Please model this.
Amino acid sequence: MKKKTVSVLSFVLAAFMVASLISCSQPQEEIFDLDISGEDVVGFGGLELTIASYFDSTNGALVDENVLGYGIGTGLADHATQRIADVEKALDCKINAIYMSNFNSAFTFGMSVGTAPCDIMFVPSMSYYSWMKAGYLSSISSLGDYIDYTDSEKWGTPMLLECLCYKDDLYGLLPAAWPDLVYSSFGYPLVASMNLISAVAGDDPRELYEQGLWTWETFSEQIQKCTVVEGTETKIWGLGGHTPYLSEMFFRSNGVSLTRIKDKLSFTCGYYEPGSFNAIEYVRTLRSGDLSHTYDPTNDVLGVVNNFCDGLVCYSFNPAQYIYGTFGTISKEVENFAILRTPAGPDVDPGYTGGVYHAMNYTISFPSITDNIDAAAMAVDAIFEPFDEYPSFDAIKEYMTHNNFFDKRDAEAFFDICLNSSYNYFYTAGGGARSIPENAPSSEKSAAELIDGYRNIMDEMFATSIGDTLNGYVAMFGEE
Model:
């Protein structure tokens, strides 16, 4: 760890001041058994800290008018603004929150010439593997005096932090104690247009789940019911989804994950497991087999979202960020929709939930060459404390259930998928990491031949990039 620019004693005193200002509890008398004679430094003496934000939008949503991920004019943006002001006062510092549309190029160039563009980063995790490998990020374990990364309610669960691990450390955190942000970064929940399903006499999928009937077999029946053909023209499709996304979700709904076998961490490819064979056959049935007439052929991500919003598709797999949050087109345009777990496959129990993510859209980290690393860590720990209005994960769930969902059952499904999501390594090992589920729908090879065809590639990834990440995960969180 670099030499500290702020003493631990100053940290203790400053942290106490922050807690006093932002805590919603009643003031209590504190007794410090410390000798502070000769110490007169509390706070940062007007130090300026810059938080640089960048959020990845591919649907044209404006992202520059925000406060740490929250749109201007929203209640959450107001909370974030007030929190920054409180921390500035408590730590005697100035926090400049800026948005940089060119962040990736500016950061990479700046670090290569020894000049960090900020003290704190609040950006998507897509480029993290290359940044970690290049030594551009400060390790989180080196900041243990200030940040307890094992506090999952504040900084994210180990599985969601997996993409931020490298070799023997962790290099990023997630704002898990704040509503919406982390919970719009995963993929790819199944959404259902309830008004459209009702109009075509489909069954209520929420009730099917509650009855223990939400399986591939039942789903096949429902998407056939929901497909409306007039003459030679399909008016309403039963199912839509970007094929790689949909395929990954059906792999996981049958208990299959890239780096986990039977939900335990694995250093060999989980796609080699028998459950993959059934998943491969089922997604082929959907995309090019007996159920292909129910499947909207639109395959680009935004086209899938737009067709669902336009009432052309009853069931659709979509990234969570396009359902809720800054880029949430679906929540803005669809009058009544449900969030559903992917129907369970034949190799798992009914009700099994699996999910996937390829990046975390809101990731907190620190450049490795900033002069103010300790102050930055202290500020981050204070800024991303829970809001007084939402002091716990249960409070966040209650807030989002009330504001984001049509039905409490949708909220339960949404969080269940999120918290059971595993990393697909798309931005660590490259697109090849998802080659098996991505090519499963269209390949004419048998399931065994398809898997064997990628075995050497997958084994190499596990020996290098995927292995780098898994080693970091084990070092920080153990093998569970």
